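Section: Multi-chain targets

For targets with more than one molecule, the full set of components is provided together so that the structure can be written out for the assembly as a whole rather than chain by chain. Components appear in the order listed by the source. The example entry contains two components.
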Amino acid sequence: MTAATKKTVLLVLRHSPYGSGLAKAALDAALASAAFDQSVDLLFMGDAVLQLQPDQDSHPLGMKTIGRQLASLPLYDINHVYVDAQAAARYNMDLSKAPLQTRPLGGHDMHQLMVGYDHLLGF
Amino acid sequence: MIYSLLVLSSPFSGHSSRRAAQFAHCVTARGHTIHRVFFLDAGTLASAANSVSAQDEESPVTGWAELADQHGIELAICITSALKHGMLDQVEADRHERASPTIDAAFTVSGLGQLVDAYASSDRLITFGG
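Its structure, encoded as tokens over all components, is:
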């Protein structure tokens, strides 16, 4: 690959973990970005906060467990993970037990976060 | 301005994939450049050469193939997603012992590194169907 420059990228996840292939697609895009030395952060919004449920077991669905794969992201230097605080509250999520260390943000802060990146990729 | 597009949804569900092709036509008509269109997940189905559309509907491949023909725009489909969705070029069809390729010749099977290169080389990356 001949990447022109290093860019800052925010992956904005908005879908539940097993309802479509998007959660897995986002993970793959995040890992590829890190592998090619881009600066990549994640924001879980809306139904995507369910990807952070602790103790997921998607084995009966015949799919790989998203939570377990998310837990490996810090190994690839993906350390800044943000969560839509309102959505997390709606689903009564205990983020202290999430597979990743996250930072909850309100609506205004999410907007402030988004404008700071070169690119947003929506999943 | 240099644009790249990321297409995530199937052309057979909703209108995002067709919208992306229309957007690419408009962008080039305005004198901008499309560096690459990257198809990921169900988006790879846009390359389905054997899809048969209803008589009064345009095949999803047509709009993309025109972009490749007229403007030389690169249409890259993610190999992992493509294989999962049965979208194979000749090389992959041979490798996986399938009878024939299933993608239109306008598309190239590619790796996720090409998505990273797309946004790293572009002023704007627009996601369709996320």
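The domain at 8-122 of chain A is CATH 3.40.1260.10 (Hypothetical Protein Ychn; Chain: A,).
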